[in-house]
Protein: Iron dicitrate transport regulator FecR
Organism: Methylomonas methanica
Amino acid sequence: MNETSSTRREALQQQAVAWHVRLTSGAADETVLAEFEHWRSQSPEHEQAYRDAETLWQRLPLPLLADRQRRRALAARQRRASRIKRGFGLAAAASLLLAAMGGFYPDYLQHPLADYRTRIGEQTSITLADGSIAHLNTDTAIDVTINANERRIALLRGEAEFDVAHDAGKPFRVAAGATTTEALGTRFIVRYDGKAGAVTLLQGKVRSSRPSAQGAQTDSVILQPGQQLTFTAETFGVLQTVEISNADAWRRGRLLMNFVPLKQVVAEINRYRRSQIRLLDDKLGDREVNIAVDILQIDAWLKALQQTLPIKVVQAGPFVFLQS
């Protein structure tokens, strides 16, 4: 399989960061150092990727560097307390490497046996056996059960829009945690991060239900088009009116957000990126902005951002930082 230059560059950057974490953990022995030298000597691109990773830490603000030094000191004390030095060193290096790679590939570790999934940055549409269509957004996993009694989708993670085929004899239900949404002939979106989520009705009518705190009863809310219901593991939120064109903009490859804090914008954009954007200024994160972003052109949006707002974009290797 041929890799594009950008794909190869991204892979090398991720490997370089993983090596930097491993080498600076204090757990690297001569074998690890030899493996690293072999990796770095494979090409000038390998060497440059590692230099970029080193540059990253030099550019980090002092508070972040101090926190990293604190964690390294703690790790060193823990290592000194161990009597099996080599075994501990290898285990620590392996766990740090896993953590580093997990930071870049969290979607590979989430719900690997789901019926349908998308990776970070991917979107797909699935026609189910009953003719309904499930449009999966980035980093999403679902299980599908269709039998004689019902059509049931378990949204394990992520976001999906459902265009439901009419079948009066088989209810269409989407379960996200303790909240189940039943379609009453409709098109709707469910989003869920494992703890909380939202149901947004685009067309038709849905009923969202969950077990009541009182026990046997259930709490139930019926949504009308343009309404959104948030939920947590414990309760429903208050029904809100949303702009439908914004709610399903991701289906058209866009992100549209009006008068929202920049930190909310960054959190939303990070759902589509392996290399995460970080805010280094809390006040900057509270600044309200309006955005219209092409999901495939996020880097271009970042460049435009610092031209329109008093924001500095610092990029080092695969990392991007925003500061005033």
Notes: Residues 5-104 form one domain. Confidence is low (pLDDT under 50) at residues 61-65, 83-101. The longest helix spans residues 62-81. Residues 153 and 174 are 5 Å apart (CA to CA).
